[in-house]
From TrEMBL:
InterPro entries: 4pyrrol_Mease, 4pyrrol_Methylase_sf, 4pyrrole_Mease_sub1, 4pyrrole_Mease_sub2, CobF. One of its GO terms (biological process) is methylation. Gene3D superfamilies: Cobalt-precorrin-4 Transmethylase, Domain 1, Methyltransferase, Cobalt-precorrin-4 Transmethylase, Domain 2. Residues 3-223 form the Tetrapyrrole methylase domain. The keyword Membrane does not apply. This is Precorrin-6A synthase (Deacetylating). Keywords: Cobalamin biosynthesis, Methyltransferase, S-adenosyl-L-methionine, Transferase. Pathway: Cofactor biosynthesis; adenosylcobalamin biosynthesis. One of its GO terms (molecular function) is precorrin-6A synthase (deacetylating) activity. It holds the Pfam family TP_methylase. It comes from the Bacteria. NCBIfam families: CobF (TIGR02434).
Length: 250
């Protein structure tokens, strides 16, 4: 039975890595790394640096798997993501089959593996197919949402209130019902612009936890153009951007 450890490594700062994650890394024989190509070479490098810094107690190997391309033009967004995940599952299954049956395999997940990360579902898919006997454990990590609130020194929720976590794509379709505090992730187009005339505060952060970290906060209508400009400049300079924000109706 191959053992897979899905290890949350935090959202950018190596000091986010927990003691539990360090112990898990030191039990790993081989790390599987999904290489997403040039635009996220920085993230692949960050993962490599984390292994080098923390997985010090025994030798390990690294197997790089080229991430399959995703059809970003497909009308059926969820279908395209499913196809992409199936292809990833197939490649990871192949990589697992190439390892010894008692191998411990590590997969580093950005932030926490439970939040907008496909690794757990991929392992579920592989286990369900039954081509390779696999058992897996999940080691939690610090999410970008936690880093965002810590950097802005704010609470995620208001007193006993709910919080809604969603994507830019869904926010573009409308403000979620029944919740005044909305965290937005995976937003390529700053969908919050649609609410610039409403009484909404924004707490925005990009490259959180890294030396390139950017933070802006204020009344949405007043700061959204600044965020847009800062974001465009940073994306042009680095070739990629990862940002997260909290919208709070006031
Ligand atoms: C595929 S999801 C992964 C989320 C991750 N599992 C987590 O726990 O934060 C990628 C999205 O997470 C957010 N994100 C991840 N790391 C970030 C960082 N260092 N700074 C800002 N946002 C980040 C962005 O919204 C990005 O589009």
């Amino acid at each position: 039975m191959r053992k897979v450890l899905i290890i949350g490594i935090g959202a950018g700062d190596p000091e986010h890595v927990t003691v539990q994650a360090v112990n898990a890394m030191n039990a790993v024989d081989v790390f599987l790394v999904l290489d997403k190509g040039d635009t996220t070479a920085d993230l692949t490098e960050a993962r490599r640096a984390i292994c080098e810094r923390f997985a010090t107690q025994r030798p390990y190997r690294t197997v790089v798997i080229a991430d399959p391309p995703r059809d970003r033009t497909a009308a059926d967004y969820e279908g395209a993501v499913r196809d992409w995940r199936d292809e990833r599952a197939r490649m990871i299954e192949e990589a697992l089959l190439a390892e010894a049956e008692d191998a411990v395999v590590g997969i580093l997940a950005w932030g926490d593996p439970a939040l907008y990360d496909g690794t757990i579902r991929i392992l579920d898919t592989i286990a369900a197919r039954g081509n390779v006997a696999v058992d897996y454990a999940v080691i939690p990590g610090i999410t970008s949402v936690q880093v965002l609130t810590a950097r802005h020194r704010i609470m995620l929720n208001r007193v006993a209130g709910p919080v809604h976590i969603t994507t830019g794509r869904r926010l573009a379709a409308g403000w979620p019902d029944g919740c005044d505090d909305v965290v937005v992730m995976l937003d390529a187009d700053l969908a919050c612009r649609a609410y610039r005339d409403e009484d909404v505060d924004i707490y925005w952060g990009a490259y959180l936890g890294t030396p390139d970290e950017l933070l802006v906060a204020g009344r949405l209508g007043k700061v959204v153009d600044e965020i847009d400009a800062v974001r465009r400049e940073a994306r042009a300079r680095k070739g990629w951007i990862m940002d997260t924000y909290l919208l709070r109706r006031v």
